[in-house]
Structures are given as C-alpha cells and as structure tokens.
Amino acid sequence: MNFSRGLAALILIIFFQNILLADNYLYKDEVINNPKFNADVNKLGAELYEKTGIKIKLVCIKEFKPYKNILEYEKSIIGEFKEPTVLLTFSELDKKVDIYVNDTSLYKYFNREQVLSPAASFAQAFVIAITSSSSFDNFMAHLTNYGGTILPLIGLKTKKFEILGMYSAALYNGYSDIAEQIASAKGVKLSNAAGNTNKNFIFFIKIIFYGIIIFAIIQYIRRKIYKRNHQDEF
C-alpha cells in the first residue's frame, strides 16, 4: 500500500515537473483564455522550435499601458528570451498587432510586412492605396503590400459573442503563417500548421471584400440609371 502511494506521488511529481518545464508559446493571454487555442499554439510552437530552433511567442494583452506604444511593451519583455525568438503581440483595447524579434536576422525567414498587412488581396490593397496614400511612394507601398493573415480577420464586423472566436482565428492564422514561412525557409515541414485552413480564411476574406465592391458598383450604377430616367425629379 505504501509502495503504491509512493509510486503515485512520484508520478504526480514528474507530471507537474513536466508542466512547469514545458515551454509556453502562448506567453501571455489576457484576452482569449481558451484551452484549445492555448493547446494549438503550444503544439505548433513546440514543433517549430524542435525542427528549426526558433521560437514564436504569442502575447495577447488587454492594453499596453503604462507603456507608450506596443513596441515599447515588446522591448520590455524580449530580454526574457535567450533562444532566437519572434514575438507576435496583440493589444485588444489599443487595436494593435505587432511582430518583434530578439535577433534582427530572424526577419529573413518571414515577411513581416505581408503578415501584418491590412489587405488580404491585391484588390483590397489597391483600394487602400487609393484612399489612404499621401504620396506616390506611399501609394506604391500600399499597393505592393498585401496577403495579410491577421488584420483582415480582426477588422471584420462581428457579433459581440463571436469576438473572442474571431481573435483566436486571426491570431492563430498569423502565428501559423509566420511558422510556415520560417519552416519553409529552413527546409522543413510542419504537421501542426494551419495549411489549407490558412488559405481558406484568406479566400473567405477575399470573397467578402469582392462582394462588397460588386455590391457598391451595382448600387452606383442603379443610382445613375435612376437619376437619368427621373431627371424631372431632381
């Protein structure tokens, strides 16, 4: 009996030691708090680190105060990581997403601007370029920067009870995008990456965006036709 209790205690000690020693790739989560999301991020993060030696830490905070901006917050925690580390940081109330690294050479393994682009497609980038550019250089920068895997999803209008689901989908989508790009650059494959799921999300965003554009064009044409046929009313 004592032997059985001692064995059970030993198993529990080893179990909890493994939990404590396990790396948490969802470094901080003040927003989503979903066990499945946590498990998915940790599984993918662990596989990437095992195969490439690079870690991606996901940070979800409510706001970056008292820091001046999200970059200042990231700089305050990046020193905690000794291995090559990429920080993917989301601040809910500030509506900010950023990527930061503890070694600038890591940027060669993934396209930071593409991941953080507010445009999922070229058409969406063109509209942003037309409406937001202050100069030709700025226009070209907007026009050539698309393929975003986080902001187009976070920017979707959704019901209040669906917000956390939207956050988790967008952040895992971006996390997986970075991981897959790093893995590809290192010549390895990830079994836990989003893969086709990532492409489906982006396709879904494109369908919504093109649908809005087509609807707006149809409404514009209808108004023009109506005014032409009812000129006496204006």
What does this molecule look like?
By secondary structure, the protein is of the alpha/beta class. The protein is 56% helix and 10% strand. It has a single domain (8-233), classed as Diaminopimelate Epimerase, Chain A, domain 1, CATH 3.10.310. The chain has helices at 2-21, 35-52, 70-78, 112-115, 122-132, 136-143, 151-154, 163-186, 196-229; strands spanning 26-29, 55-61, 85-91, 96-101. It starts with a helix and ends in a 5-residue tail after the last helix.
Distance from N terminus to C terminus (CA atoms, Å) equals 95 Å
Strand content: 5-15%
What top-tier CATH class fits best? Alpha Beta
Q: What is the number of independent domains?
A: 1
In short:
This protein has about 230 residues and is α/β, with parallel strands linked by helices. Residues about 10-20 have low confidence and may be disordered.
